[in-house]
Design a protein that fits this description.
The protein has 508 residues and is of the alpha+beta class. The chain folds into three domains: 136 residues, Dipeptide-binding Protein, Domain 1 (Dipeptide-binding Protein, domain 1, Alpha-Beta Complex); 142 residues, 3-Layer(aba) Sandwich (D-Maltodextrin-Binding Protein, domain 2), CATH 3.40.190.10; 207 residues, Roll (Dipeptide-binding Protein, domain 3), CATH 3.10.105.10. Helices cover 25% and strands 21% of the residues. The strands form six sheets. A seven-stranded mixed beta sheet has the order 8-9-10-1-11-20-12, sandwiched between helices. It has a five-stranded mixed beta sheet with strand order 16-15-17-13-18. Helix 7 runs antiparallel to helix 9. The longest helix is centred in the last third of the chain and has 18 residues.
């Protein structure tokens, strides 16, 4: 691991039921003059523009610029901080959360923000009939009420120590009460959509009425759509764009010491996950995924694909960034090609197993697929690689259907998110179609207990279970890379690149 990329970021403090939290902020100040200049950003094209449906980094980036969250997460402390909510209180039993909204916030159409907009937004996101990914995330909410013009009260059915983090989910952008077309970009955020061409770019202009004084820092943002990361980096070198937020390790290395470009790398809990569907052949035989684990050399992958950036994975989404919850004693099995061959033979594949490995074309995922192809071939696992554009791979949920796939999971501020959305039996994005009663029980304990010692123990057992019989291989936790023209200041890269705030960047 690069010594300056060690995982030293402090873990967030867990909010317990006995905590009375008030996040202090003033009411909306009179907006001041925004900055000047145009920031040109290179990114993948958009598929979804409804905040409830966004998933890719580029979609989240645009939404974060156009809309506002009720609660945000500070990139340095990993703590919940105010955005549209200027303060909040939590009842002693951990079941009632009362938020006071910033006064004087307006949507881009001129309507004032009120508690009704927050109620409508979250009721929409948790409506089972709508089948949004957030329905299960918010199923623990018993009721949401506007207890004042600028006061919203959430009541839970059971304590959730991570509820404030759930309210900052990528999809939880506040939209106007009664919105009929949620793709119309009518947010309250720092930028207004000036023009959108789905095949080319989206142009944003500064919101002159934005409630945060002195923001945004530029008058325009132009997000230009590129088909691949190499073209993005070439455009940055050539001066056609000013900012690239995500790239593979070799591309990042190629930008070191390039005149006029500042590079940035930060540790994250993001990971590339390799998974085999467990609900049909060949993955329904646990010996097959065990053989894949035994045929995988994680250290070699880390050096070849990541070039030493980040951290070696342990087949669990609970990585070393979560210091209090990560158990370094839990390790997946060491590589043993002969044992892998023996397991395949026991499963009925004496002559080898042929599969197609699907992967998006971003980051180091194609490189990961290539290394796995070589490593697994030694054990008789023969794969054909299918590289697909990211917007195609994740579009229409095709990634959830393939037998064998690589998925890039962005960093989240708390580990429970991954368990609840990716691995429990009924998880909305259970791409491995994994179902294990013991795992489900441990995940429920970790996500509901107010006893921190009990939570730490549950997470340790979860890591051991996944290393032993989980359906996923997580070979590494990747850092986040970014690069920007040195003509700009105020760039703060986020672990989840799409949550990077464009409105803090300004022309020098």
């Amino acid at each position: 691991m690069k010594p300056w990329l060690k995982f030293t970021q402090p873990l967030f403090l867990v909010v317990t039921a006995s905590l009375l939290l008030a996040a202090c902020a003033s009411t909306a100040p009179a907006p001041s003059e925004t900055g000047e200049g145009t920031l040109r950003v290179a990114f993948q094209s958009l598929v979804q523009t409804d905040p409830a449906l966004i998933s890719s980094d580029s979609e989240v980036l645009v939404a974060n610029a156009v809309y506002d969250y009720l609660v945000d997460i500070d990139p340095l402390s990993n703590q919940p901080i105010p955005r549209l909510a200027r303060e909040w209180q939590i009842s002693e039993d951990g079941l009632t959360y009362t938020f006071t909204l910033v006064e004087g916030v307006t949507f881009h159409d001129g309507n004032l923000l009120s508690a009704a907009d927050v109620v409508w937004t979250f009721n929409r996101l948790r409506d089972p009939a709508a089948e949004y990914a957030t329905a299960s995330l918010y199923e623990n909410i018993a009721s949401i009420e506007a207890t004042g013009t600028l006061e919203v009260t959430f009541t839970l059915t059971s304590p959730n120590p991570f509820f404030l983090y759930d309210l900052s989910d990528n999809h939880a952008l506040i939209i106007k009460d009664g919105t009929e077309d949620a793709t119309d970009f009518n947010g309250s955020g720092p930028f207004v959509v000036e023009n959108y061409s789905a095949e080319d770019r989206i142009i944003l202009s500064a919101n002159p009425d934005y409630f945060v004084e002195g923001q945004p820092g530029v008058s325009h943002v132009e997000i230009i759509f590129f088909a691949d990361e190499t073209a993005m980096v070439d455009a940055l070198r050539g001066g056609q764009v000013d900012l690239v937020l995500r790239m593979s390790t070799p591309l990042f290395e190629s930008l070191q010491d390039v005149a006029g470009i500042q590079t940035m790398a930060i540790p994250t809990n993001g990971f590339d996950l390799v998974r085999l569907r467990a609900d049909r052949e060949p993955g329904s035989d646990p010996r097959v995924i065990q053989a894949m684990k035994l045929a995988t050399d994680r250290e070699a992958i880390f050096e070849l694909v990541q070039q030493g950036y980040g951290a070696i994975g342990n087949d669990s989404p609970i990585g070393p960034l979560y210091e209090a919850y990560f158990d370094p004693s839990v390790q997946p099995p060491a590589r043993d090609v002969e044992a892998a061959r023996a397991l395949l033979a026991e499963a009925g594949y004496e002559d080898g197993l042929d599969l197609t490995l699907h992967t998006p074309n971003t980051g180091g995922r194609p490189d990961l697929a290539a290394v796995l192809k070589e490593q697994w071939a030694e054990a008789g696992i023969n794969i054909e690689i299918s590289v697909e554009p990211e917007e195609v791979y994740y579009g229409e949920n095709g990634w959830l259907e393939v037998d064998l796939g690589i998925t890039g999971w962005g960093s989240r501020p708390y580990p429970q998110f991954y368990l609840d959305t990716m691995l429990v039996s009924e998880a909305i994005w259970n791409e491995a179609h994994f179902s294990d009663g013991e795992f489900d029980s441990l995940a429920e304990t970790a996500g509901t207990t107010l006893d921190e010692v009990e939570r730490v123990e549950a997470y340790s057992q979860i890591q051991a279970l996944l290393a032993e019989r989980g359906p996923v291989i997580i070979p590494y936790y990747f850092p986040q890379f970014g690069a920007i023209s040195d003509l700009f200041s105020g760039f703060q890269l986020e672990a989840f690149a799409g949550r990077t705030d464009l409105h803090t960047i300004r022309l020098k």
